[in-house]
Design goal:
about 260 residues; alpha/beta; two-stranded parallel sheet
Amino acid sequence: MNIIHKCTTTRKTAVVTGATSGIGRDIARQLREIGYHLIITGRNEKELKRLVCEFGEKYTTAVSADLADKKECLALYRLACEYNTEVLVNNAGFGMYGEFAQTSLSKEMDMLDVNVRAVHILMKLFLRRFARRNYGYILNVASSAGYVPGPLMSVYYATKSYIVSLTASVYEEIKRRGLNVHISMLCPGPVKTDFNSRAGVRGKIDGITSAMAASEAVEGMFAGKLEIIPTAGVKAICYLGGALPKKLSAFANYYVQKLNKSRK
């Protein structure tokens, strides 16, 4: 882990992983606008430096981190403990297109480490800290993909299914304990970011903007919502798709993903 910029502050603090693009960057912007000191992470050091300038050196701590590495997850948590941290946004993640038998095993292991293990580690550590203080917010960026099987992006869909299931389960545990700690999951459908190009797909359906998804996420998180699903159409897909038999859902989603195959 490389600290690009570090500031000293007693301000309320939010940690945002994967903050150098898309939804993560726009969530960070919105949290900065309402007064948070930010700890932002990513692997694009040039963009991290630019964001320090955008958000202000007095209000931004920027960290270049590979969250596929457990040690760097732990180091990030230790850094956050130096501040008055009350928000965790688990946003870092990526996808990959292709048949399971053909896709790269090493890249899939990295995906599992970033999309699942890092989220799990940070969520558990911050939840324990917030529970001791009896205050805090955790937002896990999942996806509508977490409600259904996804042939041709099977591992990505499975990672998001893990996040959906874990978040909902922990939400109920927190509720039963009567803690003033809130956990939410953002589950958007298509969003206009660079996710598709990095995953090797081309979206056939126009998505919402990352700013719109971020706005819904921040509003829903502070309202204490468990599921934050922008747009009625995506909400219907999540609930109806999740209720279908898995065989039928997988059959339908195969053709949806087939349409997203990249042009060579």
